Structures are given as C-alpha cells and as structure tokens.
User: Which sequence fits this backbone?
C-alpha cells in the first residue's frame, strides 16, 4: 500500500473500539472479517482498494481473501453510494407484486438508472436479490430500513420524505 495512503486510512476511536469488540467475539481474526468490513464501510462510506488493504493488514489476511469476500457479498460496496441508497427487490414475489413499476417510478423521479447515483449525491438506486421478506412483497430497503407492502402511493411518500431530509427510518412518518 502507498505509504501516504496507509497513513491516512486508519480506524477512528469508535471504529477501533468496535474492531476490538469484534475480535473478542470470534475465535480467529479471519472469522471476524465480515463484521470488520461493516465497521470499515460505516467509517469510510465504501470499501475502496486502500480500505481493503488496511482491513487485510489489520486482520493479517492475504488481500485476495478480503477482496473476494467483498466481491461475493452484495451488501458491501466499493464505491460510495447516495445519502439514500435504495435497493428494490427484483425476485419473484416482488416482481409479481409490482416491483418493476416501483423501480420505474424511482428512475423517472430521480433521473437515474439502477447502479447510478444522482449528481448531488443524495440518491443511488439498485435492484437487489430477495431481501428475505417475500410475504410482504414488494419490498425495498433505504439504507438499513425495510419498506414492505409497497404501493406507488407509499413510494411517492417515501421519496418526499427523502427530499425533505428525513432519516431513512422515518420516511413514512
Ligand atoms: S422476493 Fe422480494 S423479498 Fe423475497
């Protein structure tokens, strides 16, 4: 890793505390890889190469082990996402109950396609594989919050909430 970059990338106090707690919970450093990646993503907003190299050095793991975990799990991302990162489920139950129309509404309102971020950095959208709540399809996530039994009307309200600056957990309030 470039020495200057290495000096800039380091866990802050809160992340360092979470890192130490994660190590205590797992039998080996390797077993703590996924929680440590979450900690890194929370702090740095994404997992670019320098951050993955930092994680690999902290866990004494070969970089390829860390990179392959990030490529495998879709909840980890290499590039920064929008302030509101919206994932719409595209699996069977959600598709049958209208998720394509919901995504179409998002594309139209935000002027972006899945995988893109608005120029102001506020929104990014993507499709997701089953979000594990098929009984309440169609489902989407905004950051860490699930929105279920969605309708066009609910989605419009959620977008209004985002535009009004509400946190992702209170968009229907
Ligand atoms: S199919 Fe959408 S949550 Fe399972």
Assistant:
């Amino acid at each position: 890793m470039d020495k200057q970059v290495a000096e800039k990338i380091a866990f802050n106090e809160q992340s360092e505390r979470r890192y130490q707690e994660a190590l205590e919970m797992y039998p080996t450093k390797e077993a703590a890889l996924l929680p440590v990646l979450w900690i890194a993503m929370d702090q740095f907003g994404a997992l670019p190469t320098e951050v993955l190299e930092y994680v690999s050095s902290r866990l004494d793991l070969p970089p390829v082990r860390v990179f392959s975990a990030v490529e495998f799990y879709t909840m980890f991302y290499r590039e920064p996402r929008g302030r509101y990162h919206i994932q719409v489920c595209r699996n069977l139950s959600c598709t049958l109950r209208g998720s394509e129309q919901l995504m179409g509404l998002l594309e139209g309102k935000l002027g972006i396609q899945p995988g893109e971020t608005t120029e102001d950095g506020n929104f990014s959208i993507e499709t997701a594989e089953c979000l594990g709540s098929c009984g309440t399809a169609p489902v989407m996530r905004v950051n860490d919050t699930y929105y279920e039994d969605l309708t066009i009307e609910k989605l419009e309200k959620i977008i209004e909430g985002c535009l009004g600056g509400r946190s992702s957990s209170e968009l229907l309030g």
